[in-house]
Amino acid sequence: MRSISFSDQTLLTPAARSAGFRQKLEAARKLDHLGLNAVEMPRLTDQEADMLLMRSLCGTVKRGALACQTGLTVDSVARAWDAVKNAAQPRLIVNMPLTAAQLEYICHLKPPKALERIGELVAAAKKLCDDVEFVCGDITRAELPYALDAVKAALNAGAGRITLEDAAGLSLPEEIAALVKAAREAAGPDVVISVRCGNELGMAISCAAAALQAGADEIKTAYNDETSLSAAGMARLLRARGADLGLESALDITRVDRTAGELEALLTAAPGRVIPAGAAPKGNGLSAEATGEALVKAIRDLGYDLDEDDMSHAKEAVERESRGRALSRAELEAIVLAAVRQVPPTYRLKNYLVNSGNTITPSAHVTLDKRGEALTGLCAGDGPIDAAFRAIEQIIGRHFEMDDFQIAAVTQNREAMGDALVKLRHGGKVYAGKGISSDIIGAAIRAYLNALNKIAYEEKN
Question: Over the range 351-388, which residues count as b (16 or more CB within 10 Å of their CB) and which as e?
C-alpha cells in the first residue's frame, strides 16, 4: 500500500476569507483533527489583522503543517515567515503563475525573468524555513517545457514540494496523469508531487484519481467550495476504492462528512442568511428595501462603530453597490470595509466603458473626477482590466509598479460581488486598495483608485 496525504485549502476559499477571526480559528481547529498534512493560509494582505490571526493559528494547528503563501517579493517571504515561524510545523508556499499572459499581467515579468524570480523567492524561503513548496500556478494552460523549467528552477533553489495547479478546472484525467508523470521525471523520486484539481467540469475527483495512479503523493482539497476538489469526495474514493488502488492515508475518513457540515455552518450558513424586507438585520444581511436608520443599524450590528464621515461613506457605498437587491452579511461587511478604509479621495470614478472580446484588442475609456475637473483616458491593454489601469495611468501621467493584484467573489452565487485588491509600490512603500462591485472590472478600478488616492494623499500631506 502506498501512503498519500492531503493538504486543505478551505481557508483560502471566498467563504472563509469573509469569515470572522473566531470562525477562522475554529475552522482551523476542526481541520487539524482530520489527519491532514497541512492547513493552508493565503498570503498576508492586512498586515496587522492577518499577523494576529496567523500567530493565533500557530497554537491551533499542531498535528499538521501550517502553511502560509508568500507574495512575489523577497520582503513578502520574510513577512510570511514572521507570521508562521512559531507553528509546530511551519511551511512557506511560493506560488507563481506559469502562463505568459499571467506573468506579464500579474507579475510584470517575461518568462525568462520569471524563472529567475522563482529561484530568488524559493531560495529566500529556504534560508528561513526547511519546508518550502512551489506551486506551478495554472500549469495546465502553460507551455509544458517552460513549466518543467520552472519546476527545475524551484528544486535547484531548495523546494522540496511541487504542486501542479489546474486553476481553470478544464483538464481531463489523462491530461493530469501525463502532467504528473512529466513532473515526476523532472523532479525525481524524492520530491513530493502534489496536485490541485479544479472542478469546472465536475471531474475533479476523476482527475485526482488519475493523478494518484500516475504517482502523485498529495491532493489539495477544500470544503464548501464548488470550484475545488471536495474533501468528502476524496474520503468516498478512499472508502470505496482505496484498497483496489493500493492507497492508504492518515486522513480520518470517518470524520470528514461531519466536519463538512460543521464548517458549512461555521463559514457559510450564518453569513448567507437574508432578513425579511423592511427589517433591520442583526449582523445577518440587509434587505433590498432597507435604507436610512435601518441601513445604519445593519452596519452597527456588524460591530462597526463608525464616525459620521465613515458612516456617510459606508452608506453611499452600500446604496451604490446593492442596486436595490438584498445583501448577505458577507457582502455588506465587504462593502463597508472597502468604504471606510479610504482617505479623502483626490480622484473619483465618474464612469468607464470597456470593450473586450476574442476577436478585438481590449480597450477602456475611463473618466475620473479630480476636484470637479473631468479627466478622460482611453487605452488598449492585454485584457479589459489591464486596459482600464492603463487608462487611469494615462490620466494621471504616472506609472506605478503593481506589487499584487487579487480578485475573489464575496459569496457563491450568480449575483456575487467581486472583491478586488490592488497593491501599488511607490517610493519604497506599498499602498493597498480594495474595491467592491457586482462588476468585477468596476471592483478592480475602484481598488486601483483606492490605492492611488492613498499615494496622492500622502504626497500632499
Answer: ebebeeeeeeebbbbbbbeeeeeeeebebebebbbbbb
Half-sphere exposure of 81 (CA within 13 A, CB side): 18
Rounded CA gap, 194 and 67, in Å? Answer: 14
Can you read off the three cell numbers belonging to residue 11?
481557508
CA distance 281 to 285: 6
* Sequence-separated contacts (24+) of 23-29 with Cβ below 8 Å: 23/266, 23/267, 24/53, 24/57, 25/53, 25/56, 25/57, 25/60, 26/266, 27/263, 27/266, 27/267, 28/57, 28/60, 28/61, 29/60
Beta pairing class for 285-286 and 327-328: antiparallel
Specify the residue for cell string 474533501. 231
* The pairing of beta strand 38-41 with beta strand 418-426: unpaired
**Quick one: pLDDT band at residue 357, thresholds 50, 70, 90?**
confident
Q: What is the distance between the alpha carbons of residues 417 and 438, in angstroms, rounded to a whole number?
A: 4
The alpha-carbon radius of gyration of the chain (Å, integer) is 22
CA–CA separation, 104 vs 398, rounded Å? Answer: 19
CB 50 within 8 A of CB 69: no
Amino acid at 107: C
Q: What is the per-residue pLDDT for 6?
A: 94
Closest CA to 17 of 344, 333, 285: 333
Q: Look up residue 317 and give its three cell numbers.
A: 457605498
* CB 76, CB 43: distance < 8 Å: yes
CB neighbourhood size of 48 (10 A): 8
Per-residue CA distances from 259 to 6, 27, 31, 228, 415 (Å)? 15, 9, 8, 17, 28
pTM: 0.60
DSSP tag of 73: S
Handedness of CA 33, 37, 41, 47 (dihedral sign): positive
Strand positions, DSSP E, 9-87: 38-41, 65-69
How remote is the C-alpha of 5 from its chain's centroid?
23
Least confident of 19-23, 57-61, 306-310: 306-310
